[in-house]
Design goal:
mainly alpha, 14 helices, 0% strand, elongated, disordered N terminus
Length: 295
């Protein structure tokens, strides 16, 4: 009965519920939470869930269709496709969460400094943010990979470097809106240090919108990682990646179309799951947005 009642609540009413109950009250967010939880469990327990080694080559059984022995079939080298999909979830989520966390931390720090610091420093930082935002992702990735070589670490650097300027601009805008508020002016009158004002008073008030943006960007990063791996600019073989699975399936699409299906399905489900979960978090954490939306 409680779940039925929760489903009929308006968005502002849901915001007053505990987080988990509020997320479960919306059917789309509930399904997304189940999908995301499933992918996280799969990534964490991949060595125990995968039936075979994801890098074991068995050319005598290459391009085998789905069967009881290999539920998703095998690829062009005879590797078990289900095992590679499971370990591919670990690769995708590790890169997405680590790169988003690094970019979020850098953007949070630089955004606070730009918003609260002197104007000359703000101008320099904003110019830097705009310059990095103007760089095409693929060209920047090619330049970094040429210097550092392809790999998981390089991919994290590329994604973090191209993501943090947008986070920094968001935090800067929030900081500029709050720096002249009454409670900040009162702290200045009490001779509070800039560090105290930034980390005690400004930080808790600007981190909410950043969390929303980070959660909404995780599926974007998953797609970027898959796209770069598809182009050969991502993780190094034989590390499993959904993008490399799709590329292998593309090259063998006439003889083994199931590789494209099983390689693309988790990518679609993960993208949808994180997108709807991010929207659910946005509705919960941003009451101003809720009040603007129709009930």
């Amino acid at each position: 009965m409680s779940s039925v009642a929760d489903a009929s609540l308006s968005l502002p009413d849901r915001q007053r519920l505990p987080l988990l109950r509020a997320l479960l009250a919306d059917p789309f967010t509930c399904v997304a939470l189940i999908l995301v939880t499933g992918f996280l469990i799969t990534a964490i327990f991949a060595p125990w869930l995968a039936p075979y080694s994801p890098i074991k080559i068995d050319v005598l059984h290459k391009l085998q269709p789905p069967s009881l022995a290999h539920w998703f079939g095998t690829d062009h080298l005879g590797r078990d496709l289900l095992s590679r999909v499971i370990f591919g979830a670990r690769t995708a989520l590790t890169i997405a969460m680590v790169s988003v966390a690094i970019a979020g931390a850098i953007g949070l720090l630089l955004g606070l400094i730009a918003g609260y610091g002197p104007r000359w420093l703000d101008a320099i930082l904003v110019l830097s943010f705009d310059s990095l935002n103007s760089l095409p992702m693929i060209m920047f990735a090619l330049a970094i990979i040429t210097v550092l070589g392809a790999g998981t670490g390089t991919l994290i650097i590329v994604i973090a470097a191209t993501s943090f300027p947008s986070y920094a601009r968001l935090i800067r805008a929030q900081t500029l809106a709050l720096k002249n508020s009454d409670y900040i002016l009162a702290e200045r009158l009490l001779d509070a240090s800039a560090a105290r004002i930034i980390f005690i008073h400004l930080l808790p008030n600007v981190v909410g919108p950043l969390i929303i943006l980070l959660s909404m960007d995780i599926p974007v990063v998953i797609m970027v990682e898959a796209g770069l791996s598809f182009l050969g600019l991502g993780v190094r073989p034989p590390t499993p990646s959904w993008g490399s699975i799709l590329y292998d399936g593309y090259t063998s699409i006439r003889s083994a179309p199931f590789m494209v299906i099983f390689g693309g399905l988790p990518l679609v489900l993960a993208t949808l799951g994180f997108t709807f979960l991010g929207e659910g978090l946005r509705d919960y954490l941003d009451p101003r947005l809720q009040l603007r939306r129709p009930a």
